[in-house]
Amino acid sequence: MGNLSQTSAPVYEALERFRKKRVVPFDVPGHKRGRGNPELRELLGEKCVNLDVNSMKPLDNLCHPVSVIRDAEELAAEAFGAAHAFFMVGGTTSSVQSMVLASCKAGDKIILPRNVHKSVINALVLNGAIPVYINPQVDSKLGISLGMEIGEVAKAIKANPDATAVLVNNPTYYGICSDLRSIVKLAHEHNMLCLVDEAHGTHFYFGKNMPVNAMAAGADMASVSMHKSGGSLTQSSLLLTGPNVNWEYVSQIINLTQTTSASYLLLSSLDISRRNLYMRGEASFGKVQEMAEYAREEINSIGGFYAYGRELKNGSSIYDFDV
Q1: What are phi and psi of 232, to 5 degrees?
Q2: Separation in Å, CA 299 to CA 3, 176, 238, 322
């Protein structure tokens, strides 16, 4: 990686250099830096349409990164504690689908909770793998699904020793976390991969006193929705891989479905957000945590309302909670 540091943002810096050159476009996109579409330029601003450029030598190419995108992905991997990181521009849906498609083939079994995101189900439709469902408990008072209990995971593994992977939502949309470390350990003991849909857990990598993140728990792959709590533009995401995964194979799988015309607006937003999280994440998530707890207390003191929190933790179906 040479002299790269977390304070640099290689894609963003390459775009700035490119902009200063004032290159005349004879290629796509057809809006010609906004000149061919004045209303678009008006809506998004001069700077934005100027940076909506095509892949070219000085800006690298997401399908096979060899320079600035590769550097940016390496910095992301380092910041998130992963062996490899992929910039994804098809939302966390494309990240989740690549993770599933890379882990199982037609006829293979994959163990997953009933409350998975539809991107997981759609990946199974594409590749013909067979879901083995674990029904999470439901909190009837709140009406929400809970986490995956380790006993239930063990039961599913015992009944399906030929499954190739176990997938966990962590945290769920409602902030409920499973005992990720134990699930990873159990999966690995049975030669299964552990995949984590971490769409709502970007902040776990940078905040203090938060539930464990997928890479720290030893998961093999995780889909991190950078645009949810990480500050990047909508539709940008990361796919993280652990040390036991062949990232070059995963790269081939990603290229089956991901666009060959990646948006530099999305790529640069991932790059800038990673730098921002590394430098300021702990402080800003600390502030957000305090605000969330304050709001919770105030709401609960009104009467007739219940903003649930850490008091739900029970060591199994609600192993941990994201305040």
Answers
A1: -85, 175
A2: 49, 20, 34, 17
Local structure of residue 56 (DSSP, 8 states) = B
Residue type at 265 in one-letter notation: L
pLDDT digit string (tens) for 172-190? Answer: 999 999 999 999 999 999 9
Asked if 174 contacts 144 with a C-beta cutoff of 8 angstroms, the reply is yes
Task: Output the pTM of the full model.
Answer: 0.96
DSSP conformational letter for 87: E
User: Which domains occur in the chain, in start order?
Assistant: 62-321 (3.40.640.10)
In degrees and rounded to multiples of 5, residue 143 shows phi and psi of 70, 30
> Which helix (H) or strand (E) element contains residue 239?
strand 237-241
**Is the pLDDT score of 2 beyond 70?**
no
Angle at the Cα of 89 (from 172 to 225), degrees rounded to 5?
A: 20
Q: Is there a contact between 293 and 323 (Cβ–Cβ < 8 Å)?
A: yes
Q: CB atoms < 10 A from the CB of 277, how many?
A: 26
- Burial status of residue 28 (CB atoms within 10 A of its CB: 0-12, 13-18, 19 or more): exposed
